[in-house]
Amino acid sequence: MATINLKNKEIEAKIVYYGPGRGGKTTNLEYIYKTYKKQVTGEMVSITTEGDRTLFFDFLPIGLGKIRGFDVRVSLYTVPGQVQYSSTRKLVLKEVDGLVFVADSLQVRREKNMISLKDMAQNLKDYGLNVFKVPLVFQYNKRDLAEEGFPILTLEQMDKDLNRQLKVPSFPASALKGDGVGVTLKECLKLTLKSLKNQFQKGS
Amino acid sequence: MNVAVKIKTLLQEAELYRSQGLLNESIGKYRAAADLLKQVDKVKNRDAYLEVIDRKIRAVEKELDAFLNAPAAPEMTAAVQDLIKEKFAFAKDADSQPLEGAIALAKFGQYGRALEEFRSLLSKDSLKVAAAKNIIRCHISRKSFDEGIEEFRRWDLEGLFSPQQLENLRVFFQGLLDKRGIEKTVEIAQSGSEILQEIELPELDLQLDQSTAGQEEELLDISSIGVLMEDGPQTGERVEFDVSFQSGREISLLILSREKGMIEHLKVGTKLNDIEFYSPFAMFKGAGIVTSNTKIATGPKRGDFSLDIKVTST
A10 with A22: CB under 8 angstroms? Predict the structure, then answer.
């Protein structure tokens, strides 16, 4: 849950990048860390295995400057995607304010995308959150592999698999090249801040 | 598609998947390429090609083994542990934050650091029992059972806890050991009643402190319970139920309509004298009483039963 400090006029929010293993969650954060230097307010922390898979989480703090008089800071996290890290994924997801689901466009990962989405929805439910109500955007990553002749899912198929009921914004991307990374994050931030504003107005 | 082209494509996909870290997929494609190659009769140097593919499969399998057998939670640097402690303690009040930070460390498998943090909380009356239970849990998780029992003995000798608290901790610890089939015994050196017999107690005018009367000790989040059935079709069996909702010391269970036989024996007022409570981080024993037994009339769970239990002791 975001921290809103009225006295100091500060807002701190948490966005988590979720999705199946090796789908590009860490690559997203690495690109943001490398590219948006003005917004990055600290070092990126990556806790990985020897094979460079995320073991616990990645963490990247960013600052959006002043918005309506409030200093807005956002912590970006990724979760480990492999099946065996489910309890860690759940821990990292706690108190989330906004989500980016990074789906793998490779055909061979189709089922993993759906399993991961279901896992995310269940973990949210365990925290009393509804996947239909949490700010969420989809990123359909690895679109560049089509140029190399590899079988990837069409955007329509991915939307049908993952977004048929949720109907949230979705963006094609190639995180390795940086395509779609910024626009995905921007939309997630927009939805998250809007949601926080609504919650704050309801509560006051 | 020409067979040679198919095999080449499969091998390229195998390489791609390997480069992506999709090791199972990579092995699958290599094997498909090998199977296809075996079906083709007249291929020059076929055995050599099969040998190369086999070597690649073994290399990928080795990578996969290394990943699967890597330590689940290696001890991290102090800086990372500090980050975990800071970012995963969500308690609103400043008093509980150190405990939550320590619990977060334990949940991330950082038991060494978690133990240090929990031990530092043993000096705080409001947190010491929770800290002690988590110390026990850490010892169980890292299989340092003897160290845990030794630590418990030190608490006993140092008089860190009241006799009742110590007994609760003993039951908690012993329960965790028994559940795992660990044949070790947790003992209290001198029982509270023995200590009291040695002391001449003055006449005490026992009046409840009104400020604390009626307040109940908070329960950990319970994810499921195991009830030793004393009646009904499963008498003598320990039946597990998932907790669908918890509020303070009241827990709600969902019982499927097909378990109707059991439901009939869990009427309002039924005392459950032997319950094991499983939280994500601890297990403890206790008792409860059924306070509500309702058939769900609407919605996706229609026909199933909602059972409420009030936890009366732990």
Answer: no
What pTM did the predictor assign?
A: 0.72
Domains and CATH numbers, chain A: 3-196 (3.40.50.300)
Q: Where are the alpha helices (DSSP H) in B159-230?
A: 163-179, 192-198
Partners of residue B20 in chain A, C-beta under 8 Å: 22, 106
Assigned fold of B224-313: Thrombin, subunit H (2.40.10)
Residue A68 to residues A65, A187, A204, B149, Cα–Cα distance (Å): 10, 18, 17, 57
Minimal C-alpha gap between A22 and chain B (Å): 6
A51: nearest CB among B12, B63, B80 = B63
Q: Which residue of A has its CA nearest to B14?
A: A150
**Domain boundaries, given as residue ranges, for chain B:** 3-68, 78-189, 224-313
Please report residues of A whose CB lies closer than 8 A to that of B87: 59, 75
Q: Residues 46..65 of A with a Cβ closer than 8 Å to B: which?
A: 47, 49-53, 55-56, 59
At the topology level, CATH places domain B3-68 in: Methane Monooxygenase Hydroxylase; Chain G, domain 1 (1.20.58)
Which residue among B72, B74, B88 places its CB closest to the CB of A91? B88
CA distance A199 to chain B (A): 18
Taking an 8 Å cut-off on Cβ atoms, the answer to whether B21 and A59 are in contact is no
Burial environment of residue A202 by CB neighbours within 10 A (0 to 12, 13 to 18, 19 or more):
exposed
Convert the pLDDT of each residue in B148-183 to its tens digit.
999 999 999 999 999 999 999 999 999 999 998 999
B78-189: CATH number: 1.25.40
**Long-range pairs for A35-43: beta carbons < 8 A, 24 or more residues apart:** A35/A178, A35/A181, A35/A182, A36/A62, A36/A182, A39/A63, A39/A64, A41/A73
ipTM: 0.87
